[in-house]
Specification:
The structure holds three protein chains of three kinds.
Chain A (H helix, E strand, L loop, with lengths): L2 E10 L2 E11 L4 E5 L6 H8 L7 E6 L2 E2 L4 H7 E4 L11 H11 L8 H11 L12 H13 L5 E5 L7 H16 L3 E6 L2 H4 L4 E6 L2 E6 L1 H4 L7 E5 L3 H10 L3 E7 L2 E6 L6 H10 L6 E5 L3 H9 L1
Parallel strand pairs in A: 3-8, 3-9, 6-7, 7-8
Antiparallel strand pairs in A: 1-2, 1-4, 4-5, 9-10, 11-13, 11-14, 12-13
Helix pairs in contact in A: 3-5, 4-5
Chain B lengths: L2 E10 L2 E11 L4 E6 L5 H8 L7 E6 L2 E2 L4 H7 E5 L10 H11 L4 H14 L15 H12 L6 E5 L7 H16 L3 E6 L2 H4 L4 E6 L2 E6 L1 H8 L4 H10 L1
Parallel strand pairs in B: 3-8, 3-9, 6-7, 7-8
Antiparallel strand pairs in B: 1-2, 1-4, 4-5, 9-10
Chain C lengths: L1 H16 L1 H21 L7 E7 L4 H12 L3 E7 L5 H6 L5 E5 L3 H7 L2 E9 L3 H23 L7 E9 L7 H31 L1 H6 L5 H29 L9 H25 L3 H19 L11 H7 L3 H15 L3 H25 L6
Parallel strand pairs in C: 1-2, 1-3, 4-5
Antiparallel strand pairs in C: 3-4
Helix pairs in contact in C: 1-9, 2-7, 2-9, 7-9, 7-10, 7-11, 7-13, 9-10, 10-13, 10-14, 13-14
Chain lengths: ~300, ~240, ~375
Amino acid sequence: MSIEVKHISKSFKDVNALKDISFSVKEGELFGIIGPDGAGKTTLFRILTTLLIADSGSASVSNFDVVNNYKDIRKSVGYMPGKFSLYQDLTVAENLEFFATIFGTTIEENYELIKDIYVQIEPFKNRKAGDLSGGMKQKLALSCALIHKPEVLFLDEPTTGVDPVSRKEFWEMLKRLQQKGITILVSTPYMDEAALCDRIALIQDGEILEIESPEAIVLKYPKKIYDVGASEMYLLIESLKEYTHSYSVYPFGEFVHYSDKRESFDPKELQDFLESKGLKEITIAATKATIEDTFMELAK
Amino acid sequence: MVIEVENLSKVFGDFKAVNQISFEVGKGEIFGFLGANGAGKTTAMKMLIGISSPSSGKATVAGFDVYKNAEDIKKNIGYMSQKFALYDDLTIKENITFFGGIYGLSRSRIKEKSELLINELGLQDVAKELVGSLPLGWKQKLSFSVALLHEPKIIFLDEPTGGVDPITRRQFWELIYKAANKGITVFVTTHYMDEAEYCDRVSIMVDGKIEALDTPKKLKEQFNVDSMNDVFLKLARG
Amino acid sequence: MKRFIGFVKKEFYHIFRDKRSLFILFGMPIAQIMLFGFAITNEINNVDIAILDKSQDATTEEIINKISASNYFSIQQYLKNESEIEPIFQKGKVKAVLVFENDFSKKLTTESNATVQIIADATDPNTANTISNFTSSILQKYQQEINQELKIPYRIIPETRMVYNQELKSVFMFVPGVMTIILMLVSAMMTSISVTKEKEMGTMEILLVSPLKPYLVIIGKVVPYILLSVINAVVIILMSIFIFKMPVQGSFLLLGLESILFIISSLALGILISTISETQQTAMMISLMGLMLPVILLSGFIFPVASMPMPLQVISNVIPAKWFIIIIKGIMLKGVGLAFVWKETLILLGMTVFFMALSVKKYKIRLE
């Protein structure tokens, strides 16, 4: 196991940031920690990167204990904190060189590993890191985290505040790094990114709700889900909530995801009910549960 | 039309941050104003809320001209951003009173409104607690309601739901639908494409220009994809 | 070693790219020295004085005439008795009062010496000092004149008394103080800010999760500021010597070594401050309130330690700056060697070691 977490708990003053968390990540796995802000993701990352000590429980990274062997871990992991954490007044090249030096290596030595990513920012290598766009900063931060060829890579919300194009590129880069044998633990509040991981842990309020592959996790949703659409969104939501048989009602873009309490559900009956409420252009169609549906169901 | 924009531009030196954009937003509409960081969204929005003067073009907001009547615009709009919303070191009630006061609401009106608001959001038990101690989701719902305190015609939301848990986010959108249902126009700037799916119509800005403007459904059909995220990817990658 | 050099290199990038701090770093010492230096001049002219002549004889009259004939003084008032001295000072009408003792002439001829008391308002220390010097020299001249015909020389003894600020300070006195403040500020404030900046920017997190040893981070932060502070010290001393003609009596080597010792103690304090503050703002506030104020108020730089209330005198002992000021005053103004300041040096050394040990102990290898 590349990462092993056993019954980790951590609290700050009166907040229980993590409550009895356990999971393990296999070597070469791309593992996602999915949850909203304040779920405890950053605390978990800091414990695993030896920055914090858990109140109880144990954890190891690359078979090194996070408390006793913290020095070994610091040599062998790459870490990209949630906030952009590079020197804004240093240029792209200077930042990379600095991190190479403090890890006792050189850019040339591990250039192969970062080449894919670094070539994209190399044209700006004399620009100060603070003047880069969000996507560029993120690529530079990843290059810096990789420069010493880490065995395990910790990425805490790498795509927050980054535009969709850069996000997509970023995940493509992660996939390529994974093929080079690097274990990656990544956290994100975006459910749509979860689908790109090998396995994910859904986390909320310091508790893990479920650990599964993205394909398997949506099967955990216990009901059939329907996309319900109508001309007036607010009235539609209110009416569905009023409907006696409704199990869950959540707006999902232009539709509302609806599930029914009963085993046998007749769309016609719902249609009639909605029409009686004065709604027009009603559509009801079966759809697949998403990771968000599952998350909300588990978090209830 | 509540917002009318025609060939609006903002130029910094020789950089065209906003390049001749035109659009209209109707009463009670939820309008998504999308674009990557640096595409010009924020600059455009600053002109609409009257804190930045355009370089050229025409725009009226709530019937007021952005050049001449910026002060009237400010009275008739609400604004909420994820970065700044409420004062963490004031209680819920103090925040409401403060913002009510800023918009010139009378003391009795503030009292009445704040009770209504606190009951509506179910915050009775925590009304005297510091806003800083509330969960993020509650803060956002509260700051949205506070932004509506003076009954503005339009509310501007700047990336309102990034990072919030899925349930709270939906509760937030229900608040938005409710406001729109009352006839308040909602103008959402965001670079999170999943927020775009909830809007009645969206515009997508790329490099200072509006490159697409339609309902999410039609845009998805037009680009033959399943999500607004893919629409954006196709647009941005050309 | 390569890691360490890489780290120091990065620190210098930070320093040289932050133009504003750089300006403060080198502009401030120059501005301060200029300010203290030029605000205090050594020239006096037509200074208002009063005279209390208790004997009123021929000799005193002659001396008074000499004094009033010089352009340096203008006699405003003749006092009748001693009780008038205090009020006239308080009204600020005169800068000095000359008091001739009883039977001046008689004492001079029978006992061969007589006393003139020069009481000067030392709230403006430099003027007071100059007044005293000028008066003494007038008296001396007169003495030489009358002694030409005599076998046993008569002596007029000028007795200077400073009121309100017994310990005279002038530009020479300010140099050690200003130097102390500048070194303290540059070393403690700048290092604490540069460490907390890393915390604020989140880069500290990455540094911690790297094989870089914590003590290397500390030393790496400190080394650039030792260099900058030494440059500052040299600039201040050179300015005092060449612009204000201040003689440095003692050994430059000793002065340099003592300065480095003080710089290191300030740096250790800076690191200590950074371990207890999370933001640059806090670090700056603590440096200013916690270090600057005590240095200015309690170190003896402006207010003499001896005239402080007892509790403050006790407190002043824990301020490294107090000892450093004593040491450099000794070296610069009195020209003493280590033999005379070894005690103070030892105290300063002890404090430095203590602060360093404390900051290394307090420095966190984790986030909490």
